[in-house]
Amino acid sequence: MSADRRSLLDHDQRFFEALTTAEVKVLGDLLADDFVLVSVEDGAAVGRDVLLDAIATGAVRFPAIESFPDEALVRRIGDVGIVVGRTGMNFTRPDGTAFSAGSRYTHVYVAVSPDVWQLVSAQGTAIKPPA
User: Fold this and answer.
1) Which domains are present in the chain?
2) What is the pLDDT of residues 58-80, one digit of tens each?
C-alpha cells in the first residue's frame, strides 16, 4: 500500500470516527476552513461551522458509520487527494428521526504538510437497493 493511500484512508477513518464519537476538536482539525459537505440524504450543502455546531449540540448524531477501505479508490494529484469509497451509515436528524443509507462518497483533501491532510469537500450519494 502506498504511503499516500495509507495516509488518506487514515484521515478518512479519523473523520468517520470523529463523527460517531462527536469529537468536535478532532473534526475541526480535519476540516479545512472552507469545507463543504453535500448531504447523502437530501443534497443540502453545509459549511464547516454548521456541521461542527450540529455535532457539538447533538442536533445531528452518527451512531454508526461502517466504511470499506479495501474498496476505496484513492488518487493523489499534486497537493490534492481524492478518496471515493463506500459506507453504511446511521444518523439522527435534528428532529430526532433516524436515517440509514448505504452510500458512495467522494472526499477531497488538500495536503497541508507531508502527512497531514485537510478535508475540503465531502459528498455522499445514496446507493439505491435494486428494484
Assistant:
1) 3-126 (3.10.450.50)
2) 988 888 899 999 999 999 999 99
